[in-house]
């Protein structure tokens, strides 16, 4: 339980820190490309990690696998530590208010910009699905599909592959349509596949897991939409 709590705490630091960091070092017109590229790399490495996990577990064991994962966390932290930050971003970080002051500032920003609520609500819903769907995979596969670890690994890989392909194609969709229309399309795809999943009891319905990941790639667009509609002065606060 302690290990799970610590992992949850460390992972919860990622998005609130990464989003303002990306916005501070990437030009506004390149935000969507930057966010989707980072997400694709993340999911690609997730697929590779799941593919190698069986071999690592067989040779290193469970504790050794956790140790290897911890080492990669440390390496990632070192890379972030040596990353060069823009001068204006460093000066802003020194002059930041405390958490309560930031909270008050964010509430005032929402009050002055009511149109900002819809992108925020959209992102909250997408992030809720993004956090819960991988968690319910385990009991769903065990209790509904009556399958084992091998099926779970395959479905998890399909899910990550769907997010990867979705992020890749969303760049094309945004150029042909728009960010908002692409976001609606991806959410519709995810909704349809979740309905199919709710009545499915067979393992041969594995393409649905790929399409759920495809739809969940919308979280990158929701973050980009927030970044584009938010005043840069409030990055990391709102």
From TrEMBL:
<dbReference type="GO" id="GO:0022857">
    <property type="term" value="F:transmembrane transporter activity"/>
</dbReference>
<dbReference type="InterPro" id="IPR011701">
    <property type="entry name" value="MFS"/>
</dbReference>
<keyword id="KW-0813">Transport</keyword>
<feature type="transmembrane region" description="Helical">
    <location>
        <begin position="116"/>
        <end position="137"/>
    </location>
</feature>
<dbReference type="Pfam" id="PF07690">
    <property type="entry name" value="MFS_1"/>
</dbReference>
<dbReference type="GO" id="GO:0005886">
    <property type="term" value="C:plasma membrane"/>
</dbReference>
<keyword id="KW-0472">Membrane</keyword>
<keyword id="KW-1003">Cell membrane</keyword>
<feature type="transmembrane region" description="Helical">
    <location>
        <begin position="183"/>
        <end position="200"/>
    </location>
</feature>
<feature type="transmembrane region" description="Helical">
    <location>
        <begin position="66"/>
        <end position="83"/>
    </location>
</feature>
<feature type="transmembrane region" description="Helical">
    <location>
        <begin position="6"/>
        <end position="28"/>
    </location>
</feature>
<feature type="transmembrane region" description="Helical">
    <location>
        <begin position="206"/>
        <end position="226"/>
    </location>
</feature>
<keyword id="KW-0812">Transmembrane</keyword>
<feature type="transmembrane region" description="Helical">
    <location>
        <begin position="157"/>
        <end position="176"/>
    </location>
</feature>
<protein>
    <recommendedName>
        <fullName>Major facilitator superfamily (MFS) profile domain-containing protein</fullName>
    </recommendedName>
</protein>
<dbReference type="InterPro" id="IPR036259">
    <property type="entry name" value="MFS_trans_sf"/>
</dbReference>
<feature type="transmembrane region" description="Helical">
    <location>
        <begin position="40"/>
        <end position="60"/>
    </location>
</feature>
<keyword id="KW-1133">Transmembrane helix</keyword>
């Amino acid at each position: 339980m302690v290990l799970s709590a610590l992992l949850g705490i460390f992972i919860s630091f990622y998005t609130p820190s990464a989003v303002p960091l990306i916005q501070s070092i990437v030009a506004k017109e390149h935000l969507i490309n930057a966010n989707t590229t980072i997400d694709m790399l993340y999911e690609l490495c997730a697929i590779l990690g799941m593919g190698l996990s069986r071999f690592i577990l067989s040779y290193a064991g469970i504790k050794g696998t956790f140790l290897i994962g911890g080492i990669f966390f440390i390496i990632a932290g070192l890379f972030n530590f040596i990353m060069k930050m823009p001068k204006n971003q460093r000066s802003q970080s020194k002059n930041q208010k405390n958490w309560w002051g930031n909270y008050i500032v964010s509430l005032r920003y929402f009050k002055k910009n009511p149109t900002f609520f819809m992108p925020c609500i959209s992102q909250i819903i997408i992030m809720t699905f993004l956090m819960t769907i991988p968690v319910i995979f385990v009991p769903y596969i065990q209790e509904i599909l009556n399958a084992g670890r091998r099926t779970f690994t395959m479905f998890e890989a399909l899910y990550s592959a769907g997010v990867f392909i979705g992020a890749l194609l969303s760049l094309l969709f945004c150029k042909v349509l728009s960010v908002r229309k692409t976001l609606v399309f991806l959410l519709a795809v995810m909704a349809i596949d979740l309905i199919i999943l709710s009545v499915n009891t067979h393992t041969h319905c594995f393409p649905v897991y790929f399409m759920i990941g495809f739809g969940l790639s919308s979280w990158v667009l929701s973050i980009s939409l927030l970044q584009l509609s938010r005043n840069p002065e409030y990055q990391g606060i709102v």
